[in-house]
Amino acid sequence: MSKATMKIGVFLGTGAIVLSACSSSAESEVTPTVTPTPVETVVPIAALAEDACFEYFSVDLLRSEMNADTSGLKKKQRQALLADMQLSVDQLVVSIDAAVIAGELPAKALSNAERIQNNVNKANPQVGITSINKKQLKRINTSAERIERFCVAAGNDLPVANIDARSN
Q1: Count of domains forming the chain
Q2: How far, in Å, CA of 80 to CA of 158, rounded?
Q3: Biggest alpha carbon distance in the chain?
Q4: Where residue 122 sits, what CATH number does that domain have?
């Protein structure tokens, strides 16, 4: 081996040692990537929205009864149905208001609940549920359908009892 070849070998060896020392610093170390195992995502149901939707479902049962043929009901029964509807709608407005304040339901849910309340309260308590005219009934039903969509979007599906009541 010649002297020049030996100098090149020593130079390359020293360069390799210097490079290995540089690459072993903490900054250039490669950290292993950890891929998390897929976990089933559970969407939490908001408690206040759930309560508000529960109130809506009870109003919906009364609405189904109101939309059915009420001509066979006696005067006291029509009055009682209206009183029950008014009480349930009042509770619905309070529950939806709390859910809207908490951000669990949109503000439009509250305006629809208040629209139902206004139309139900226009009824004559002496006559009962039959004093709600067709225009008011249509507004009640439209607003109720909107609230139902908000409830479904919040993860609260319509109970089977409500579906059965609609088909009767």
Answers
A1: 1
A2: 25
A3: 122
A4: 1.20.58
Concatenating the DSSP letter of every residue in 8-69 gives HHHHHHHHHHHHHHHHTSTTTPPPPP-PPPP----PPPPHHHHHHHHHHHHHHHHHHHHHS-
pLDDT of residue 43: 47
Contacts of 108 (CB under 8 A, 6+ apart): 146, 150
Q: What is the pLDDT of residue 27?
A: 54
* Nearest in space to 61 (alpha carbons), one of 92, 17, 23, 26: 92
* Reduced DSSP (H G I as helix, E B as strand, rest coil) percent helix, strand, coil of the chain, to 5: 70, 0, 30
Pair 135, 79: CB distance under 8 Å: no
Q: Which ranges of the chain have pLDDT less than 50?
A: 10, 42-43
Q: Domain residues for 90? A: 47-159
CB neighbour burial string for 62-75, b if at least 16 within 10 angstroms, e if fewer: bbbbbeeeeeebee
